[in-house]
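Hey, can you fold this one?
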Amino acid sequence: MSVAVVKLGIGNTASVLFALERLGVRARLTDDAREIAESERVILPGVGAAAHAMALLEQKGLRGVLACFTRPMLGICLGQQLLFDASDEGDARGLGLLKGRVTRLAATPRSPAPHMGWSKLLSLRPHALLEGVREGDYAYFVHSFVCPESDATLADAEYGARFPATVGQGNIMGCQFHPERSGSVGARVLGNFLALPW
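Sure. Predicted structure:
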């Protein structure tokens, strides 16, 4: 199976590659538009600011490739946020693959931003990406912005308020958490993603 991990030069892509290798897949870290377009799976990771990440995608000529990709694609953390129409973070225009606008996490004295640590997955909807994941399983998060609740929400998490932890619509999927750092639960999600029929 050919799996492309989009190379933006931001985020901890090494841990994503290692997690895939543990599942028996040697993915390619690439910013080559043709290689990404021809891959059977694409993973869009990211840590950092939405506007900067989108500017990098534009510079590398990858916006159109990702927007038109028809096989399974998984956004991780910032990568999930980039799947949406827009983000308040730098007033960025996203890929527009999912409807809605990313907003700042509602921080409180008891739940200061960023949200960094383990949180339960809640209100799971049946979906192949979450096969074998149970209500209350923990995943590891690091983020200051959240995606909007929508028909694409597959599971929530809670930190001050509820927000989408996982999304999916057609071939487009995302995890606000880091599956590559979420132990057996994250490995299960990545394995499910790799096993999706398409």
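The first helix runs from residue 13 to 22. Let me know if you want another pass with a different chain boundary.
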